[in-house]
Amino acid sequence: MVAEIKSYTVIGVNAVEVTVQVDAGRGLPSVAIVGLPDSAVKESKERVRSAVVNSGYPFPTKKIVINLAPADLRKEGTIYDLPISVGILFSQNIVSEAKLKDYLVAGELGLNGEVRRVKGALAFAILAKEKGYKGVILPFKNAEEASLISGIEIIPVKSLVDVVAFLNGDCVIEPFKENRKSGNFQFDVDMADVSGQFHAKRAVEIAVAGGHNLLFFGPPGSGKTMITRRIPTILPEMTEREIIETTKIYSAAGLLSGGVVNKRPFRSPHHLVSDVAMVGGGSNLKPGEVSLAHNGVLFLDEFPEFKRSVIEALRQPIEDGMVTVSRISGTVAFPSRFILVAAMNPCPCGFYGFEDNVHQCSCSPFQVKRYLSKVSGPILDRIDIHVSLPAVKVEELSKGEKGEPSASIRVRVEKAHSIQKERFKNLPISFNSHMGNREIRSFCVMTLEAEGILNRAVSTFRLSARGYNRIVKIAKTIADLEGEDNIKPHHVAEAVSFREIVKVN
Ligand SMILES: Nc1ncnc2c1ncn2[C@@H]1O[C@H](COP(=O)(O)OP(=O)(O)OP(=O)(O)O)[C@@H](O)[C@H]1O
Ligand SMILES: [Mg+2]
């Protein structure tokens, strides 16, 4: 009889059902795997043979054909070691059929029969639930991520012997229950370390509260990197939905070291990063930095030093919150909604426009222009908050006055987040920065006086329609931070102070 064990493969960040068929028939003893397996799957037969024998079971001296269906879907990795072993044992009547139809099975095997972690276990559990299975049998080390999905049994196994005993009803394996700690994280840095720079710290607070992209513009040593590195300390806790979304990406990429991603990601790739590493793709379709930063922060320090193509490739993920990457077999979409924080100097020497008694800019106008033109207008246009950051004065530094601690900033940010959660509960957006024209019209109510200030700002600074919307959205976030329903004059005034400062021609 042909054994059929249900398993999965990952496409992008989602799992698709795969049926592992094992047929042990007459013929010269051999094992063949068909159904578009990659080399890791092909090697499976060697691991399976040793694992089965070393677990104390006989290996059939028959012609074994293993088919991974659907055959037109490429199968990668080591997921099928366990389902293939179970199929081989089933063909010898060592495993009974009763429970097999209720569970999906996946796991890598060591030569001694131990079950090892696989990629994409969270997507696997989601698939099992969607398809109405009773549960999944999966490696113990994948159990925590899979347990984010409730309503199905997560059966954690450590060895092939465990699996056989469970399927035959010889032992009971308790389904894994989540036991997650709340996201109370300790940091060894704090916003309070930053002296002065109130405008920049406030900008960070607003950016984080409303999901706005942020650009720091200033001379060397003004604290751009220092302030940005402290952003994780004021990020609000992740919601359950966000934890699942981000964990799914890390799980599919095989980057989970254990447990789940319950701390907002903060990614700061080096400026030599390649296009593929930034947006994802490659022969094995991996998510890029923009997706690894999903629901968190993507920090691009020394922004103009990034390759032009890398900077341009950010447009789609910033605009859509998704990035689509293609390979021969098809196209995959990865989620990529992040807050972009970019930091840059005004020119190669770093002091253009920020000269003082000590520092003079030594660049020619051409050098300045060429430097700035590395960052294109359309990208700058997608950054809501622009902050000019002059170096803090030595007197101010030496005073060593403590700023507001991160914990109290985070309280305001959390409040603004919950207001937005309620506001957008029936919409596919989460933050003020995601609002389109329609949402701006329906949610951003302004007092007459505030509208007057905004109109004056538009004509004084000759703002575009996009610039106008940007200010309204920032003003809305500022109002949310104060818990105000309507946008008031001082909200608009503060929002205008973050208008575009870097002009690229
Ligand atoms: N406001 C500040 N309060 C306390 N320390 C500061 C402040 N600004 C700068 N510093 C000190 O100066 C150092 C350099 O700052 P930082 O690396 O953030 O500068 P930067 O703006 O990123 O410069 P660059 O343009 O060269 O990257 C910090 O590590 C910190 O010790
Ligand atoms: Mg820096």
Short description:
The chain has 505 residues and is an alpha/beta fold. 36% of the residues lie in helices and 17% in strands.
Write up what this structure looks like.
There is one protein chain. With 505 residues, the chain is of the alpha/beta class. It folds into two domains: 3-167, Ribosomal Protein S5, domain 2, CATH 3.30.230.10; 191-423, P-loop containing nucleotide triphosphate hydrolases (Rossmann fold, 3-Layer(aba) Sandwich), CATH 3.40.50. Helices cover 36% and strands 17% of the residues. The protein contains 21 helices and 18 strands. The protein has helices spanning 39-42, 44-54, 81-91, 121-130, 143-146, 160-167, 198-210, 224-229, 240-252, 275-279, 289-292, 308-312, 315-320, 365-372, 377-381, 394-399, 406-423, 437-443, 448-460, 465-482, 489-496; strands spanning 3-11, 14-25, 30-34, 63-69, 103-105, 108-109, 115-116, 135-139, 153-157, 214-217, 266-267, 280-281, 286-287, 297-300, 322-327, 330-335, 339-344, 385-388. Strands 11-14-17-10-18 form a five-stranded parallel beta sheet. β1 and β2 (14-25) form a beta hairpin. α7 (198-210) runs parallel beside α17 and α17 packs across α20. The longest helix has 18 residues, at 406-423. It is elongated, with a radius of gyration of 28 Å. The mean pLDDT is 91. Residues 194-197, 218, 220-226, 345, 350, 392, 397 line the site of adenosine-5'-triphosphate (ATP).
